[in-house]
From TrEMBL:
GO terms for cellular component: outer membrane-bounded periplasmic space; plasma membrane protein complex. This is Energy transducer TonB. Residues 137-227 form the TonB C-terminal domain. The keyword Repeat does not apply. The keyword Cell membrane applies. Its main location: membrane. SUPFAM superfamilies: TolA/TonB C-terminal domain (SSF74653). Belongs to the TonB family.
Length: 227
């Protein structure tokens, strides 16, 4: 009796053969892929012929504006001009002074500089004198007075405002501080505080010119600083 062949068993027996054949084919394809060379084709692009265009620029001509003709002035010939004699009626007769009148009666008595009272002369403060005005006790004592009585405005504190104020005033012959004004301020109530302090400040030693007390203009910086 003839034995029947099992197809599954035969496939399993030939499985190794099929694997080796597949591996060989894969290796052959890989080698062929690496060895394959693509021929490079150089494409020649024909040059385009561009028609040349000649640009013609017309010449620039300058147009000169002719100058206007100068007017000709005819000067009269002095030899031909005859002056008419003056008419006596065109002149008014001069008033002759009376015999009992003098020039001082007409013009008044002359007034000399010595006759003008000193009160009528304007007093202008000096900017610089031989002996400049100073605070009593020195500038250090004066700034201690400022620091002691200075009140920092609440608005300036809230807004964080600080800086230097330039104040100007005049020290008169008696040492009083007058004509106080702010040249450069920072606002927020600080300028008004400086004016208040200088109005209540103690007297200074007045400035002197040739030993005589005079009015002198002074500029003083005062700084507001937040600690």
């Amino acid at each position: 009796m003839e034995k029947r062949k099992n197809p599954e068993k035969e496939l399993r027996n030939k499985q190794g053969l099929f694997f080796n054949m597949g591996l060989l084919i894969a290796l052959t394809l890989c080698v062929a892929a690496f060895e394959y060379e693509v021929e490079e084709k150089i494409v020649h692009v024909p040059e385009l012929e561009v028609d040349k265009v000649d640009i013609y620029l017309p010449p620039i001509t300058e147009h000169k504006i002719p100058e206007p003709p100068k007017p000709k002035l005819k000067m009269p010939d002095p030899t031909r001009v005859k002056a008419a004699p003056p008419d006596p009626k065109d002149f008014e007769p001069l008033l002759e002074p009376k015999k009992d009148e003098s020039p001082t009666d007409l013009l008044g008595e002359p007034r000399y500089l010595e006759d003008i009272p000193e009160d009528d002369l304007p007093e202008v403060p000096f900017d610089w004198v031989e002996e400049m005005p100073k605070p009593k006790g020195g500038y250090e004592a004066f700034y201690q007075f400022i620091s002691k009585h200075l009140k920092y405005p609440a608005l300036a504190r809230r807004m964080g405002i600080s800086g230097k104020i330039s104040a100007q005033f005049v020290v008169d012959e008696k040492g009083n501080l007058i004509d106080i004004q702010i040249l450069k301020g920072i606002g927020a109530g600080c300028d008004e505080e400086v004016l208040r302090l200088l109005e209540k400040a103690p007297k200074w030693n007045p400035g002197k010119q040739r030993g005589v007390p005079v009015k002198v203009k002074t500029i003083l910086p005062i700084e507001f600083r937040l600690d």
